[in-house]
Design brief:
Layout (H helix, E strand, L loop, with lengths): L2 H14 L20 H8 L3 H8 L8 H10 L4 H10 L16 H8 L6 E4 L5 E4 L1 H7 L12 H7 L12 H19 L4 H12 L1 H7 L11 E6 L3 E12 L4 E7 L5 H12 L8
Antiparallel strand pairs: 1-2, 1-5, 3-4, 4-5
Amino acid sequence: MDRAGLAEFLRRRRESLQPEDVGLPRGQRRRTTGLRREEVATLCHISVDYYSRLERERGPHPSEQMIASIAQGLHLSLDERDHLFRLAGHNPPTRGATSEHISPGLLRIFDRLIDTPAEIVTELGETLRQTPLGVALTGDLTRYTGPARSIGYRWFTDPACRALYHPDDHETHSRVYAAGLRSTVTLRGPDSRAARLQHLLLSRSEEFRTVWNEHEVGIRFNEAKRFVHPQLGALELACQVLLDPEQSHMLLVYTAVPGSESYEKLQLLSVIGNQDIVPR
């Protein structure tokens, strides 16, 4: 572990970032060059004391999980992330579809969607980030662990997952998730995480087995998705997708037609928050 190199790299990266670069308010009377240590600690989900000791060349040897959290909080590129791991004495994680490190460019867009339901997901439908209004719409989707992190897995194994969608659309959802998984398995191969998820669903869901045996590919959602919110009722939202091809991450942004009933309900949703929401 290169403590001096790690400390200097962290300081340089912190000082190069401005609050608006990471979705934080600037506030008044700001004199700090770059971000404050307290702000970085919040972004990285670690204590201020722990982060401060790293910048002062002190403290314990940070774990791989801790370094990954710091790399994401500081909005590092993949090359910068890998450099940070090596400074901390760890081998960098793999790149590509299995990586959960969100690119700085995608994060910069995401950080500006404060008043919009949005989420960043992997190719297996695992939610990595949600905006506050995204949580208010669907519940906290980042809290799941294991195969349940995948919306496709939850769709076929957890009936509560379907409560937020119009019943008339359930068959389409099943076809889309099965077809999407089939394409991913073909792309990634028989030893991939997608293939393991396929075999798990085949063993646990009769409905999945039925849909899977249709061998459908290329089935996609319409641009509009119909949600059923427990308090606001039906919302019809357009879903726009921005793809990061290097990481196979997708930014999903949900909007409503201005002046429509769904648009008015989104305004109410920002007030109601995430009370009494059935998780997706």
